[in-house]
């Protein structure tokens, strides 16, 4: 029987009085929001776990170190594979004009994280006092100053490359080489490598490592052991997996579980 995903409530901000609206939620595994849009722009951030957002032609998947910016009136959908602790800040159309005009990833600065944590602890959705408005303006200034980054795990437009990426994502333990993947879509190794750099901004090997890292986050969130995650992702030993994870997260899997996974709360 096919599993039915839980529906994620879509936030209505059209009648909010003020320049900012902050949202805090916790969503269970396999929760989705259908395609929709807002007249306000908003930054989406998974404090614990990872999340995926889809726009018309692009897919954005981000670990907890990144947020996903969606400009005003852009149709988007959302899906979380494992439970997440979710944060969002909505900005009026006027404030959004100084934010990126396209969807993008933004690295979450410690100041932004701290302000979101403070507002969430107080369940503050609309800042009204002068002190809270100052904090909201600091957060806004921080977001404006954050360099725009391509999606952490970018998608491909070229059908042949998209086919390769989908196959790799479905079987993260597949160890086929660049040449073997190229042959599977009737390309030369050099041509596939060129398309990767042009469309993804990285090599196929780097994309695979990022994909495995994101799937590792889901495994940690689900409570799987480091050994199980390592073998599921195709690593011969847990130590090889831990080394990869350390390069991406700058901390061990167990440290990451304690800090970023809701199951560890």
Quick description:
The chain has 265 residues and is α+β, with helices and mostly antiparallel strands. It is built from 10 helices and 11 strands.
What does this protein structure show overall?
- The chain is of the alpha+beta class and 265 residues long.
- It has two domains: 6-149, Regulatory protein AraC (Jelly Rolls); 159-264, Homeodomain-like (Arc Repressor Mutant, subunit A).
- 41% of the residues lie in helices and 21% in strands.
- The chain contains ten helices and eleven strands.
- The chain has helices at 93-96, 110-121, 130-145, 159-170, 178-184, 189-200, 204-221, 226-232, 238-249, 253-260; strands at residues 6-7, 20-27, 31-36, 41-48, 51-54, 59-62, 66-70, 76-80, 84-91, 104-107, 148-149.
- The strands form two sheets. Strands 2-9-4-7-10-11 form a six-stranded antiparallel sheet.
- A hairpin with a 4-residue loop joins strand 5 and strand 6.
- The longest helix is centred in the last third of the chain and has 18 residues, at 204-221.
Global mean pLDDT: 91
Write down the Rg. Answer: 19 Å
Strand content: 15-25%
Ranges where pLDDT stays below 50 over 5 or more residues in a row are: none
Shape annotation: globular
What's the CATH topology label of the largest domain? Jelly Rolls
- Which architecture name of the largest domain does CATH use? Sandwich
Count of DSSP helices?
Answer: 10
Spell out the CATH superfamily of the largest domain.
Answer: Regulatory protein AraC
Name the helicity range.
40-55%
The beta-strand count equals 11
Structural class: alpha+beta
Domain module tally? 2
Order of helices and strands: EEEEEEEEEHEHHEHHHHHHH
CATH class of the largest domain: Mainly Beta
Sheet of most strands: 6 strands, antiparallel
Spatial order of the strands in the main sheet?
Answer: 2-9-4-7-10-11
